[in-house]
Structure formats: C-alpha cells, structure tokens
Design goal:
By secondary structure, this protein is α+β, with helices and mostly antiparallel strands. The protein contains 4 helices and 14 strands. The longest helix is centred in the first third of the chain and has 23 residues.
Length: 350
C-alpha cells in the first residue's frame, strides 16, 4: 500500500473509541431489517476504505461522494439509528452517552498539505424517521477558528473520538474531542462543546472555557473552543479520564525556543487539563498536583496486546517515554496491513 495513503498512527484511536454507548438494536430492528442494513453496510465499507487508501486523489474524492450518497440512502430506512455500521472501520461513529444522537466523522486527504473533514449528526427520533444534519468543514477558509459559535454549515472539522455529557442548570452539554491532520508538518486535537437550540439544531462552541484558576493569569485568551497543535511526529495525550473526571492533555513546548512555530511543539512531560465547574471547563495548569496514583498515566485509552487486552507494561513504558521526552515517532507502533481494519491500530495515546 502506498505510504501516501496510510492514516497517521495517532488518528486510529478515535475509531477504537467510537463503539461505546450504543443503543440496543433489538428494540427496533427485526431480522429482515438487520439483513437489509448489513447489505448496505457491505457497500459502504468498500467505498469508505477507498476514501482513505485509494492511491489517486480523484479516486478518494469519488469514493467519498459515493459513500455519502449510499450512507444517506441507508439512513433513510426506518430505525437506522439502531444499526451500528460497525463493519465500516475507516469512519468514526460515536453515540452520545444518552443515545439522543450519533455523529459520523471522517477525513478526506487531497494531498500532503490539505485535509478535509466530513461529518453528519443523526438524531434519535421516536418514530424511527431520519433527522440528519450534514457537517460542512470551513476550517481551510477562515483565519480564526477559535472565536465563534458555529452551525453545521460552517463547522470546524475534526474526527471525533470522544463525547462527554455534562449538565448545567437542567441543560445538556456534549463535549467533543477530535483529531485533525491539519497539515504536512503539524497535527491538531480539538475540544469544543456541542449543544442543541430550542429548535433542536446543533450549535458548536461557546463560552465554556475558563482559565480563571491558572497560576499564570491571561496566558490563554477567551475562546469558544480549544485546541493543541504540535509537531507531526510527536505523540500526545488528549482525552477524558473518568476516574479523575477531567480532560487531560500533554503540556507542549517548542523544540527550538520558537513559540510561533506550532509545528515544532512537543510534549514536555507535564500535563494540563480541564474540569467541569459551574457550566464551564475550568483549566487546570498542573495536573500532577492532583496526586496521581503510583504508575497511573493520565489517559483513558490503553494500549492493547495481540489478544485485545490492556497491556499495562506498554502503558508504563510509554509513560516513561513521555517523562523522558522523546517526542519521537514510536518505533513500536503497528504497521497497517492491506485488508485489515482500523481496529488493528492501537496508538500509544489517543
């Protein structure tokens, strides 16, 4: 398989993380309906694979167009929300923790410098009919993606790998963690809050991030979403830890003391985070002061062994790498083999 078509190692975890919180299919799908969805899934699996692995850009774009049309036709069938499409392994599929909606996201690569994200939100409707919001990525055409609340029509694209449900004053807020290949030299990870207005329409972003408890004031200006950007070859943690009830991520620093060059940023062995307080994610600038347990590494996703079980030894080894820092490519990372699915990729950290 040509190397230009391979997915980066750090992208793969989002697929691994996208199978939780699925509703019970048996409640709404009989055997005949399930068989029909399975046939459509076979077609979708073929085109979705080519979106990522086709060698020529025109083939990737053609497969993307075919996938979208086929997916919409499949979703129009009654109670499609309850079919997981779990054989489609190059598309992230996340159910909200309360099963009120699910979100599909994926990536389309034009060349080494340009990536587009695609997506759709499917609402869980009582009568099984389709209510779908297509997500249109405009991040390539704007100067400041951090400064505004956005709709599906001007979405800041990302491939989502986690949804965290929080409530405040009787309202639900869904925090999305996502991945963006961004460019040839840097990668981004995103965090933003999704909510629904009185008409049931999704809104992305808002005043949900506070740095009021930072030891260094005014280090981060107010924004409607949050991201980190770092060197392409670096490995970073950015995920929700349920035991700590925090979003924890690597603290970054430039390799060559050039803070304006985000594509030189690497982890420095320390961790920052966010904790939900009073309807906002409040920044914690030094997570280690919360006294992690011995050997605990602040991330939820674990490295799996060949049997698909958590490999604690690899976790500890990766933790030591992070402390010694090493923002170097992980030479032990698995290599994609033709014909295998993204579930075969388990990165050191999501």
């Amino acid at each position: 398989m040509p190397s230009t078509c391979l997915l980066p190692i750090s992208l793969i975890a989002l697929i691994v993380l996208s199978f939780g919180s699925q509703p019970l299919m048996a409640q709404h799908l009989d055997m005949e309906q399930t068989r029909e969805f399975e046939k459509r899934q076979d077609s979708l699996a073929g085109s979705s694979y080519k979106i990522v692995f086709a060698e020529e850009p025109e083939d990737r774009f053609r497969s993307d167009s075919l996938f979208i049309r086929t997916l919409v036709r499949a979703l129009k069938r009654p109670y499609s929300f309850y079919f997981p499409f779990d054989s489609i392994q190059t598309i992230s599929k996340l159910y909200a923790p309360d099963s009120s909606f699910r979100i599909f996201t994926w990536q389309l690569k034009r060349d080494e410098f340009t990536y587009f994200q695609r997506g759709a939100i499917q609402i869980n409707t009582p009568d099984g009919s389709l209510k779908l919001f297509g997500l249109h990525d405009v991040s390539s055409f704007i100067n400041n993606p951090l400064d505004s609340v956005r709709t599906p029509n001007n979405w800041i694209g990302a491939i989502y790998y986690r949804i965290i449900l929080k409530t405040w004053q009787g309202k639900k807020y869904y925090t999305l963690l996502g991945y963006d290949d961004n460019s040839a030299s840097s990668t981004k990870k995103w965090m933003e809050v999704l909510r629904f207005n009185e008409r049931g329409e999704p809104l992305f972003g808002g005043p949900f991030f506070s740095f009021r408890e930072d030891s260094v004031k005014d280090k981060n200006p107010p924004s409607d979403r949050f991201n980190i950007e770092y060197k392409k070859e670096a490995t970073t943690t950015f995920n929700y830890n349920p035991e700590m009830d925090m979003i924890v991520y690597d603290q970054l620093m430039p390799e060559n003391n050039e803070p304006d060059k985000k594509d030189t940023y690497i982890p420095n062995g320390e961790y920052e985070g966010f904790r939900w307080k009073g309807g906002q994610w409040v920044h914690v600038d030094k997570v280690f002061t919360l006294q992690l347990k011995d050997g605990q590494f602040p991330q939820e996703q674990k490295i799996l062994n060949d049997a698909g079980k958590p490999d604690e030894q690899k976790l500890l080894e990766q933790s030591e790498k992070n402390k010694q820092r090493g923002a170097k490519p992980d030479s032990t990372a698995p290599v994609k083999k033709a014909g295998t699915g993204l579930m075969d990729y388990i990165p050191p950290s999501p």
